[in-house]
Design goal:
Oligomer: single chain
Radius of gyration: 36 Å
Low-confidence stretches: 194-217
Number of strands: 4
Mean pLDDT: 78
Shape: elongated
Order of helices and strands: EHHEHHHHHEE
Length: 222
């Protein structure tokens, strides 16, 4: 918690500014550096040290002489109205997948499991076929094993390449789906902000897409 950065709102800045002349030199210099910074942030450890200093017997007479309430410098009072890590940014919002997308994802998962099982059976079958075929050549068993392993390795490499191609295409479709959801969410917000509003001066109506015209109220007509 000592390294946590919190925001420095205007009310907290005004409360801390008189303490620059009262605090010990080291703490005063560090506090002044935060007060003069345009980022409007301050370390939690500085506020903790200020709170500890305000509770000392030496600090109370100085605060009273400046008509400052020592209770205003407790940790709870200093942190009131602040937020943690104000410079940090939240990740972009990604809408949850729809029911159709979840169903499609389930189908893709089943396809991936099926492809993996097929690859394992293909590798095992190719190795056994190599072992069986090499038996017709009169090779010794060690050469037959080496040949079978070579065939299985070639098939495994082929299956691995095919899986990488399939995975890259699946990721590309996933990224495209996320991009479409974000565009759809942004378009919905834009349409919501462009809705017509009724005011006391007249009615805003939409004559054509993208064009707005204000109809003035007719006076003297029923």
């Amino acid at each position: 918690m000592s390294d946590t950065i919190v925001s420095l709102p205007s009310h907290l800045r005004l409360r801390l500014t008189p303490l620059v002349e009262l605090l010990p030199e080291n703490l005063s210099q560090r506090l002044a550096a935060y007060l003069n910074d345009l980022k409007a942030e301050i370390s939690h450890s500085i506020l903790l040290e200020v709170s500890k200093w305000a509770r000392t017997d030496a600090a109370r007479p100085q605060l009273n002489a400046r008509k400052l309430d020592p209770n205003d410098y407790t940790v709870i009072s200093l942190l009131a109205g602040t937020i943690t890590s104000p410079s940090s940014k939240l990740p972009p919002y990604v809408p949850p997948p729809s029911a159709s997308e979840q169903a499609r994802r389930s189908v893709n998962n089943r396809k991936a499991i099926t492809a993996l099982l097929n690859a394992l059976f293909s590798i095992a079958g190719a190795g056994y076929a190599g072992w069986w075929a090499s038996g017709r050549t009169g090779w010794r068993d060690e050469w037959r094993v080496l040949f079978a392993l070579t065939v299985a390795l070639v098939v495994a490499l082929s299956e691995g390449v095919l899986y990488l191609i399939w995975e890259s295409r699946r990721e590309a479709r996933k990224d495209e789906s996320i991009r479409r959801r974000r565009l759809k969410t942004g378009a919905g917000k834009k349409d919501h902000n462009q809705d017509a509003e009724v005011s006391s001066e007249g009615v805003v109506k939409r004559d054509a897409p993208g064009n707005l015209r204000r109809r003035q109220p007719q006076h003297g007509q029923e």
